[in-house]
């Protein structure tokens, strides 16, 4: 279980870093916060998938999706690319 959580932390960090590179323009949150949100989302997604009894591949996909949505949501909440348009 500990190795699985470490895997989700690594996945979340990579997703957070990639999200930082993908979103163009000025990013309203810092790189460390973006990576932290990715980690939290990946761990949360992995734990929920594990609790539902999903396999490891489904848990991985679920953790990636939740982490990406978390980073995108935080970016939009802070007035980023998908936030305010004025």
Automatic annotation (TrEMBL):
Localization, UniProt: Cell membrane
Database matches in InterPro entries: Transgly_assoc (IPR007341)
A cellular component term, taken from the record's GO annotations: plasma membrane
Statement: the UniProt record of this protein carries the keyword Transmembrane helix: yes
Swiss-Prot/TrEMBL keywords: Cell membrane, Membrane, Transmembrane, Transmembrane helix
Transmembrane feature ranges: 6-23, 30-51, 57-77
Keyword Transmembrane helix carried by entry: yes
Membrane topology, as annotated: Multi-pass membrane protein
Name of the protein in its database record: GlsB/YeaQ/YmgE family stress response membrane protein
Protein species of origin: Actinomadura rayongensis
Phylogenetic classification of the source organism: Bacteria, Bacillati, Actinomycetota, Actinomycetes, Streptosporangiales
